[in-house]
Amino acid sequence: MAEVIRYEHVDISYKGKRVVHDVSFSVEKGEILGIVGESGSGKSTLVKAAMGLLGRDGLVSRGDIWYKGMDLPDLKPGEMRKLCGPELGMIFQTAGSSFCPIRTVRAQLYEFMTEHKKIKMDVFEKQAEELLEKFGFDDPKRVMDSYPFELSGGMQQRVGIAAAMFLNPKILMADEPTSALDVTVQKQVIEEMLMVRKTFGTSILLVTHNMGVIRAMADKVLVLHEGEIMEYGVTEEVFEQPQSAYTKKLLAAVPKLRR
Ligand SMILES: Nc1ncnc2c1ncn2[C@@H]1O[C@H](COP(=O)(O)OP(=O)(O)OP(=O)(O)O)[C@@H](O)[C@H]1O
């Protein structure tokens, strides 16, 4: 299988204080990697580093993040902007908060789309409807006519994922995409992301503190503790035979869930 992104001995600091240390892993086409660990272990920092989202205080101080022969932390902001969306998509804990409340879903999706490519409204409309149908929305026109506040949190999150897939990115970075949702809606969002992988062959980096979500979705899992890798391997194996004491402790704290 083709490798799409590779982290090599990555250190990341904020204001000179190192919060991620010597992290290496790679993700193949269509693979879902779960990144799990306690709050503050550096999960979000890892994915933000690939997207150029560390902010002014953050820096990849050592190592490389390779994507299509480019070392992402070395890219200029303009070069990075071109990749974000069409190559590297991102969904957050609350997609709803990234929608503007007083403009329709249609207007916002169209704006998102035209930031990256020229497309006429009627062509966009057709493509958007087809995409939303793929995501299980029976009445895509109604969704497009809606204002975000008219949709439930779960619907907003699902529209957020569909929006990220408009540009068909090769990698989807999902930072706690289910944490703000109740359990039944979590399941829908998990199914939606699995559909994304199946339909589009997208690789997914999934950040979560929820071991159940990892077990339900991830092919491989990377366990992070205080910025260092405690364990990295095939999900089933890590769950059945964890090697590190830290992973054992994490697993002991969650009820068993089946795929
Ligand atoms: N902008 C920032 N400036 C300074 N320190 C930061 C910044 N962002 C994160 N940190 C610190 O970096 C460390 C890792 O944070 P990060 O948000 O990546 O962890 P996380 O595992 O994603 O946590 P959570 O599950 O709570 O989101 C923490 O100690 C955090 O306080």
UniProtKB/TrEMBL annotation:
The keyword Disulfide bond does not apply. Residues 5-251 form the ABC transporter domain. SMART domains: AAA. It is a peripheral membrane protein. Coiled coil: none annotated. This is ABC transporter ATP-binding protein. One of its GO terms (cellular component) is plasma membrane. It comes from Blautia faecicola. Pfam families: ABC_tran. InterPro entries: AAA+_ATPase, ABC_Ni/Peptide_Import, ABC_transporter-like_ATP-bd, ABC_transporter-like_CS, P-loop_NTPase. The keyword Zinc does not apply. Signal peptide: none annotated. Keywords: ATP-binding, Cell membrane, Membrane, Nucleotide-binding, Transport. Belongs to the ABC transporter superfamily. GO terms for molecular function: ATP binding; ATP hydrolysis activity. It is found in: Cell membrane.
